[in-house]
Amino acid sequence: MGRLQRRRVRVICLLCLLFLLYNLFVPLTHTDRVREYARREYIEPARSRHQSTVRVVAGEVQKAVRLTNRVPLVCQALKSTKFLTENHLILEKVEGPPSGMSTTVTFTYRILDDAGRLNSTEREGESFRKLRGVAKEVFRSLGGGEAFLRKEREQFHGSGEPS
Fold first, then answer.
1. Which terminus of the chain, N or C, has less C-beta within 10 A?
2. Which CATH number fits domain 23-115: 3.30.160, 3.30.1370, 3.30.9, 3.30.420?
3. What percent of the chain has pLDDT over 70?
4. pLDDT-based confidence at 115, cuts 50/70/90?
């Protein structure tokens, strides 16, 4: 090994050592701890079980990472863009009080594949869901869905027979 190569190896080793020391002595923020816990305890197990969705309760996460009176922090971390993009998730639903800041708040995520796409069966379901509400204006112009069905039943059974 030449003199120049030894120097490069020393520089690389020094950089690696600095990186390790930095990670040892710079603690994670509370928000990072929340995101890391949710990823490790909820997202990764659900992904390994090939689940399409996963639910995370804010109060359970707060308790597990040993935080007190930090519900807003936990809720913000669990709905942050950083958490969603790093873990390839779509936040489908947030259940809880209107403030969205409570230990009872439940986040439901759709798990995407590693490239950030829905898997094939979910893509088919997504296409079908996009059709929802397509005839809304048509039924509204006919007096609403119930009025339309009532008229159809009357025409089918005749106006004298009960439906």
1. N
2. 3.30.1370
3. 83
4. low
CB contact set of 160 (below 8 Å; sequence gap of 6+): none
100 CB neighbour count, 10 Å cutoff:
16
Per-domain residue ranges for the chain?
23-115
Residue type, position 84, single letter: L
Predicted confidence band at 4 (pLDDT cuts at 50, 70, 90)? Answer: confident
If we measure between CA atoms, which residue out of 43, 97, 100 comes closest to residue 76?
A: 100
CA distance linking residue 138 with residue 134, whole number of Å:
9
